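anyone seen this seq b4? input:
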Amino acid sequence: MIKDKDHKKYLDYLINNLINKEKNNIVLNRVWSKDFSNSPGVYIFFENDKVVYVGETTSIKERMRDILDTRHHTLRRKIGAFNFSDIPEYKKANSKTKFPSIIEDLVSNWMVKKMKLSFIEVRLGRKELEDLIIKKYNPKYNSISKRGKTILKSKII
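predicted toks r here
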C-alpha cells in the first residue's frame, strides 16, 4: 500500500514535471492533433507562462482534437466569454452551438498566438493530479468540479 507521504511526493513530482517541461505551440489543425499519443494524461494550457487551464483525459490525442471545436471543449468557450464577450457579435457558445464565426476566429487566434501546452501521460490518479494543480495555481479558465472539492479536502493534501 502507498503511504500518504509517498503519494503526495509522487503527485508533486508529476506537477513539477508538467509545469517545467518544454511547452508546445498550439497549431489547431487535425494534423497537429494526430501527433499526440492515445494515452491517458493530464494537460496544461499556459498564457505568458502562467497556468490558465488544466485538464485530464483518457486520450491526449482525442482531447487535442476536441480543442479544435468550441462545442467539444469548455476551454474554447471560456476563452471566448472571458476575452470577447464585449464584442457586439458575441453570442454565448455551448456544447451544441459554436460562437459566431468572428468570435471563433478570435478564440483560435488567441490560442495560437498567446497559449502554449504541456502534457504528461498518467494512467492512474489523473483527476487527483488535475485537482491539485487547480488548487495550487487557480487557473482562470477552470472551474472546480464537485468531485474536485471532495478530493481537495482529502487527507493527502
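The longest strand covers residues 50-57. Residues 4-152 form a domain with the GIY-YIG endonuclease fold (CATH 3.40.1440.10). kinda curious what u guys think
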